[in-house]
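User: Please fill in residues for this 253-position structure.
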C-alpha cells in the first residue's frame, strides 16, 4: 500500500512502537558487569532515529551499554530537521530524507538526491569526531528504520574504513548505481543488519535485500532475523549490537 496510508497512522506506528521498545529494554536489562575495565581508546557511536522521532527520545539506549569497554565511548543522538514527507501527504515532521511510500518494500521508489544530502550531514558529524582524535576504526554509525537506511548509506559512502554500521529495520535507500562510488577502504567497513520478521512498516523483504546488495559492492555483512518482531527494536537486538561493537573496538595499547 502506497501513500494512501493515513499519515497519522504512519507516525504513530513508528514513534509509539519505538517508545514501547525503549521501555521494554530498560526494564529487562540485567545488572551492570563488575568486570575490571581494559584500557580502551576513545570511541564514538552515532545513533540515527526513525521518521517522526527525535534524538533525545533515543538517548536511553546508551544506558544499556554498561560493559567496561564503553567507558570512553562518546554517544551522539542528533535530531533530523523538520521536512515535508511525501508518504505522509507532505506533512512536516522530523525526517532525514523524503520517503515516497509506506510500507517500504524491496521495490519501493527512492529519492536518492535527498538521501545524498543527508549523507553529507552525517559525514560532517563523523569528520568532526575523527578530527577530535577518534580513530575511524572506533566510529560506529547505527540507526533505526529511516535512520538505519541513512546509517547504511553513510558508511557505504564514507571514504575511510569505519568501525562498523548497524541497521535496525532499515532498507537500501538508493539504487545499485551508487555502488560505483564505494571506495576500497569503505568496503572494509563491516555491516550488521537486524530486522523483525513481522515488520509491517519496513517489510522484512526490504531488509533481506540488504546482504545481496552489499555483496555486489564487495562488503561483508551479517543479517539477523527476529521472528515475531514488528517495527521495533528488541532487547535481544541491542545485546547483539553491544557484543558486535565490543568485538571491534580498538585498544589504546
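Assistant: Residues filled in for all 253 positions:
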Amino acid at each position: 500500500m502506497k501513500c494512501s496510508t493515513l499519515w497519522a497512522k504512519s507516525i504513530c506506528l513508528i514513534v509509539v512502537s519505538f517508545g514501547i521498545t525503549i521501555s521494554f529494554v530498560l526494564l529487562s536489562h540485567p545488572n551492570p558487569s563488575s568486570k575490571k575495565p581494559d584500557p580502551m581508546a576513545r570511541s564514538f557511536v552515532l545513533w540515527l532515529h526513525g521518521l517522526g522521532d527525535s534524538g533525545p527520545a533515543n538517548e536511553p539506549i546508551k544506558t544499556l551499554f554498561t560493559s567496561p569497554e564503553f567507558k570512553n565511548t562518546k554517544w551522539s543522538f542528533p535530531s533530523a530537521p523538520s521536512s515535508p514527507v511525501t508518504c505522509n501527504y507532505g506533512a512536516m515532521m522530523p525526517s532525514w530524507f523524503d520517503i515516497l511510500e509506506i510500507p517500504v518494500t524491496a521495490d519501493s521508489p527512492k529519492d536518492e538526491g535527498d538521501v545524498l544530502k543527508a549523507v553529507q550531514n552525517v559525514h560532517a558529524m563523523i569528520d568532526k569526531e575523527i578530527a577530535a582524535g577518534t580513530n575511524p576504526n572506533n566510529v560506529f554509525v547505527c540507526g533505526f528504520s529511516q535512520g538505519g537506511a541513512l546509517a547504511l548509506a553513510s558508511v557505504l559512502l564514507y571514504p575511510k574504513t569505519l568501525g562498523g554500521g548497524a541497521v535496525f529495520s532499515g532498507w537500501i535507500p538508493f539504487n545499485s548505481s551508487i555502488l560505483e562510488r564505494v571506495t576500497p577502504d569503505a568496503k572494509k567497513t563491516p555491516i550488521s543488519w537486524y530486522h523483525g520478521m513481522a515488520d509491517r512498516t519496513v517489510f522484512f523483504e526490504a531488509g533481506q535485500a540488504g546482504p545481496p546488495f552489499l555483496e555486489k559492492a564487495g562488503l561483508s555483512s551479517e543479517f539477523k532475523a527476529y521472528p515475531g518482531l514488528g517495527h521495533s527494536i528488541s532487547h535481544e537486538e541491542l545485546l547483539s549490537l553491544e557484543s558486535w561493537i565490543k568485538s571491534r573496538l580498538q585498544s589504546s595499547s
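For context: Helices lie at 7-28, 55-58, 112-131, 146-157, 204-208, 210-216, 235-246.
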